[in-house]
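Structure ticket #2291
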Amino acid sequence: MGAGHRHRLLGRHGRRGRPRRERPGLDRVLGLDRVPDLDALAALGGPVPEDVVLVCPAAEGEVPDAVRGTVNRTLTALQQWLADDRFASSRLTVLTSRAVDTGKDEIDLGLAPVWGLLRSAQSEEPERFALLDVDDQDASLRAVPAALASGEPQAAVRGGTVLVPRLCVAPTAVAPAALGGTVLVTGATGALGRLVARRLVTEHGVRRLVLASRRGPDADGAAELLASLAELGAEATAVACDLADRDAAAALVAAHPDLGAVVHIAGALDDGVISSLTPRKLDRVLRPKVDAAWNLHELTRGLALTAFVLFSSAAGTFGGPGQGNYAAANAFLDALAQHRRALGLPAASLAWGLWEERGAMTEAVQDTDVSRMNRSGFAPLTAGEGLALFDAACRTDAAVLVPVRLDRAALRAQAAAGFVQPLLRGLIRV
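Resolution: structure written out below.
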């Protein structure tokens, strides 16, 4: 790996001057020449190195602000990388520190969404991007060249060992679901929210629910949902609340001191490929996921919750073309669940695949999209399948679960043709 020939190290995203909070000794260990940003790299003239390593500094500030800062800076770098033809034959590896949980980590919640954003970038532009996460041990820094040369699109180095992500079958239920007290359901008047609210009553014995959404009782179908829950013997209240607003969320939690569980389903879409994403598109999707979930986490820490369930998306795990902002937001939810578990708090983030049930967030999904997903080995979940997986998730001791319906035959056909997504190589023999 010749310094200045095959690889180049960038200090930080799109800013000149001395990089801050960098990996100690990274230049020395990797033997790479450093330039401050992509502009400086392009200005050097001559051929661009085959591989460029972009150091993503640790997030700073309050968590929601830190998320926006890192995601926006990273997005700017990705857009510049894709827009410049001089980089077309090179690969950009984004280097983070403790942005992913490998089982023993204190995860950086401000950096975790960068991985969701990059996973979508990888799905849109295969071979153009890679992800690498390291700890601060010298042995890990020395292992970075091996990780870069592995060809894996995503990897982490811990204690000098290179680790790669693989999905595995979740363990069977280990405990009965416990959802006592009043249960707060956000996004409850959406398609999945209505299904889950009823399921909480019929299968989990919940008798008091607070159904929060932006429009509350004025939302389409809210009156019918309340009536159906009353018929099932539950006392339910629909409230209008923007949970991304800290004061509004605090007032809602304070009004229900008997709160026993939270199921956070609310979300929003504003799709666009990486090159078309803007800070506004990012913010529209981050608010109901990042800000609302963080508010709920902080405001309920003093309560004896039995469950804190986050509805995430497989887009944050696999990436999704045109959904970089959504993938980033959901990667945060997964990281928040891991963070809460490390604090000894209940949490489960469910990275759902597509449901057959259509709602405001999935009404744009066309039959051709579903057919493409089926060919790739992912089939939509029926309502019955999804609710059964929800029940199982509430009984399983895992911080992050990926409830998806896999078509094993389609995946085996892909394996026979020589390609299976790296994440699935633990499930499908290659």
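Closing remark: Confidence is low (pLDDT under 50) at residues 1-6, 12-24.
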